[in-house]
């Protein structure tokens, strides 16, 4: 897999992490109402993917993990201005920080940058 594909997969993992976390909560609530094997299987898969993403984020330096959270996971309108204020740097530096953090996250998630 090329570096671009690893990076694209890492971006998608981060973009969907918030929703996968919410899905885990919803599926647990559904299981309380009905003991459905299909939901159990989906829950195991989703929990596993969330845990892998969390482990990868935890392996990064504090700033790297925080940049990825700000850029992908908790991204809100006006995120770039907020990040520039938070980190005290220009937009180009924010993108460079994001790219470096994304490479590190990709390595932690998938084990390769090539």
Describe the structure.
This protein is mostly helical and 114 residues long. It has one domain (3-110). Helix content is 83%, strand content 0%. The chain has five helices and no strands. The longest helix is centred in the N-terminal third of the chain and has 31 residues, at 3-33. The protein starts with a helix and ends with a helix. 19% of the residues are buried. The model has no long low-confidence stretch (mean pLDDT 90).
Tally of contiguous helical segments: 5
Radius of gyration: 16 Å
- Mean pLDDT rating: 90
Number of domains: 1
Order of helices and strands: HHHHH
Short description:
By secondary structure, the protein is mainly α. Helices cover 83% and strands 0% of the residues. The protein is elongated and about 50 Å long.
Quickly list its features.
mainly alpha; single chain
List the helices and strands and how they pair.
Elements: H1 3-33, H2 37-59, H3 62-73, H4 79-87, H5 91-110
């Amino acid at each position: 897999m090329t570096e671009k594909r690893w990076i694209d997969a890492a971006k998608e993992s981060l973009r969907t992490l918030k929703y996968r976390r919410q899905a885990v909560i919803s599926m647990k609530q559904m299981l309380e109402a009905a003991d459905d094997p299909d939901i159990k299987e989906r829950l195991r898969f989703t929990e596993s993917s969330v845990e892998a993403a969390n482990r990868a984020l935890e392996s990064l330096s504090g700033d790297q993990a925080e940049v990825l959270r700000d850029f992908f996971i908790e991204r809100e309108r006006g995120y770039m201005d907020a990040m520039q204020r938070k980190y005290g740097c220009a937009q180009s530096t924010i993108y460079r920080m994001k790219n470096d953090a994304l490479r590190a996250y990709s390595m932690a998630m998938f084990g390769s940058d090539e």
